[in-house]
Amino acid sequence: MNKRIGIITAGGDAPGLNAAIRAVGKAALGSYGAEIIGFRDGFRGLAEDLRMRLDKRALSGILTVGGTVLGTGRDKPHRMEIDGQMCDMTSVIVRNYQKFGLDALVCIGGGGTHKNALRLVEAGLNVITLPKTIDNDVALTDATIGFDTALGIATEAVDRLHSTAHSHHRIIIAEIMGHRAGWLTLGAGIAGGADVVLIPEIPYDVNHIAAAIRRRSRHGTNFSIVAVAEGALSKEDSAAFAAAAKRKLNAKTKTEKQRAKTELAVLTANHSGNTLRLARQLEELTRLEARVTILGYVQRGGTPSAGDRLLATRLGTMAAELIHDKVFGVMVAARGDGVKPVPIADVAGNLKTVPPDHAWIQSAKRVGTSFGD
Ligand code: F6P
Q1: Domain of 106?
Q2: What ranges make up the beta strands (E) of the chain?
Q3: Is the CB of 12 within 6 Å of ligand 1?
């Protein structure tokens, strides 16, 4: 009997998702005549039976299209809002998987998706995942689908900001996505020639940033570009977050845990205006005008780059092959020019952050980039 494969895209969207859906589908259809069923809107589609047949026709013409034809969502199988109530839908998903006669489920997503996929693996489903996020922070893979496109978009933005910063003798701060990992900011900062790069992994001192900018002015360059990750933290904020996280970890009572959780929520809320605050601080310290550009969702939209289409096709076709070979519970990781299945259990809950001694950081420092540390 032919195999029946389910596919979902979950978490934030990223360019290249359709290329991945197409790769899994075309390879499985072509090699062993599988039937491909897409489920809309992430894990919710599995729980609420939001099915969509992905036949040859549906898979055609989507390689270059941004977003995801399946839709996506951030719902978790074990905590899904149904009619205003939080419900554990894991067993419903397992029942639906059996009811639809699926032989395998492909989940394309980032960190959250891997945690959710692991739950389904533990519930007995045959799951394979593909790493996707513009943040590039999925563990055990060299690259994630979406990063290359976002890198191009963010780099172009940094490029364009140069001429206006130069003309007005201003500091321009470009806020780039990445709450917990700085790959995108670091990559675009280096490729776009930002003067200062601020990432979550390297807490900054605003005085050091101002000193770097003033140094440029002294040498006759009275404009600067600062590339800042949305999750970049000052040294003080970083210490406050670390202390609150430690209190949460060591909490002995429910009240203590709740207090630490509230403290973390307050810190997170306060951090949301960080880039604007940084601009005001730098104006005061340097006497230069500062402006902020928040790149936001532009980084996730539109046509995937050639690199992302290629990566999605490499990973997706391997997923189809692994399903054929009955290899499950794995993420298809990119390793050099090749691909490698790695246990989902080793990926879930692990974040690939930028090591402070990473080669990209060393190169950036060698061309005079300041990290404000
Ligand atoms: O996970 C990718 C990402 O783009 C992050 O960089 C960003 O912080 C987050 O998603 C925001 O996504 P949303 O607003 O869609 O939840």
Answers
A1: 4-146+304-347
A2: 4-9, 35-39, 51-53, 80-82, 85-87, 104-109, 127-131, 170-176, 196-198, 224-229, 289-294, 330-335, 338-343
A3: yes
